[in-house]
């Protein structure tokens, strides 16, 4: 099996190259090989490579900056994936695309299901929703995974931002009225690999295999402030282990995290207050459920703090 992975240098793309390796030949490309700013060129690359599976974590993820760059965000998040999906429809293959909790407005009291109406509050959320629609209308076989609050021990993300700030300040102020499930990029990549293995080994016509839209997040829930507190606590506990510290093994200055409201932390883009996604459909169709977010956080930090 030939698997094409876009966004090879991103946090999810980097992890996918490792989790997908047992499944076949990996062709990992970054902006130089597949330029999302040139959708025709991106589609031509798909036609040339002719992958059996195209895994597309590549995206414009600067949520606040997208408010001032809507057309650029749309080009990367919607137009390019749609063109690549149409190219894959002509050659045959499975398109795996990642979307976001930000397609919802956050007004629902319970976790969102795949059938709930969307209502993005930001340009980023709107362009990711348009990307979902473009892939679904392309005519190719596809799986779309909506996930939330993705982080890793590399790249630009909330975990690394908290650790950086915690080395500079004794008190951190974090939003405490937005609820979601922090999801480790490694766990997301591992689940993707397991699902590809299940789909590729299923019998019968491709059209009869499970497909479509799924929510894929870690278990449990917290707030950004709760996530920050857990990062600091887990980091400090691991730092106390009697071993030689790794790259992240630097003591933190931060002693507390103070929760604030979204209105106290103004950003160009609005965020949903409820980003919780139900994973029941994923478990029903694929038998996969990710562990609780706190467990995954410790595993992620374990690899960073302890060599």
Task: Please supply descriptive tags for the structure shown above.
single chain; Rossmann fold; globular; alpha/beta; 9 helices; about 40% helix; two-stranded parallel sheet; about 300 residues
What's the short version?
The protein is an alpha/beta fold. The chain has helices at 11-19, 39-49, 70-91, 123-136, 158-166, 185-201, 224-239, 280-286, 293-305; strands spanning 2-5, 25-28, 53-56, 94-100, 141-147, 150-151, 171-175, 179-180, 183-184, 212-215, 222-223, 256-260.
Q: If you had to describe this structure to a student in words, what would you say it looks like?
A:
This protein has 307 residues and is of the alpha/beta class. It has a domain at 2-152 and 183-219 and 276-291: 3-Layer(aba) Sandwich (Rossmann fold). The chain has helices at residues 11-19, 39-49, 70-91, 123-136, 158-166, 185-201, 224-239, 280-286, 293-305, and strands at 2-5, 25-28, 53-56, 94-100, 141-147, 150-151, 171-175, 179-180, 183-184, 212-215, 222-223, 256-260. The strands form four sheets. A six-stranded parallel beta sheet has the order 2-1-3-4-5-10, with helices on both faces. α4 (123-136) links the parallel β4 (94-100) and β5. The longest helix is centred in the N-terminal third of the chain and has 22 residues, at 70-91. It is globular and about 55 Å long.
Which secondary structure elements does this structure contain, and how are they paired or packed?
Layout: E1 2-5, H1 11-19, E2 25-28, H2 39-49, E3 53-56, H3 70-91, E4 94-100, H4 123-136, E5 141-147, E6 150-151, H5 158-166, E7 171-175, E8 179-180, E9 183-184, H6 185-201, E10 212-215, E11 222-223, H7 224-239, E12 256-260, H8 280-286, H9 293-305
Parallel strand pairs: 1-2, 1-3, 3-4, 4-5, 5-10, 6-9, 7-12
Antiparallel strand pairs: 8-11
